[in-house]
Amino acid sequence: MTKFDPENPRVESMEDLDEVVRHSERVMAGLAEAQRELAAVTGEGSAADGMVRAEVDGAGRIRRIAFDPRAARMDTAALAEAATEAVRAAQEEAARRNDELLRAATGGAPVTVDMERARREFEEIGADLARTLRDLTERW
Fold first, then answer.
1. Are 29 and 14 in contact (CB under 8 A)?
2. Average pLDDT, the chain
């Protein structure tokens, strides 16, 4: 059996097929864990010397905005600007945390999907698997 290469998966034996399955299971487990962690991501931000604080979820949706009593002395335009600044800071933090989790889950690989490439690779894997299974059944 040759060492499994996820960039160029070839199935030439039952051992290779087993390794492909094991690799897929490891990747799926890692992604499932990342998905659980992503669901728990929050971001926090503040503005106006901490008088305005915001918390967002991992998708950047506002969960909470809090105003220190001193913020009541601010004019409405400054208060609105501070709230916007706090929300943006919280969204940036949540996005950074999401990015860190995804990079950890993928080993630093970018999280993009080229559907045409994926289709071609699945077709190649399927053809290799069919060929291997045919060869194995002919031997027995």
1. no
2. 82
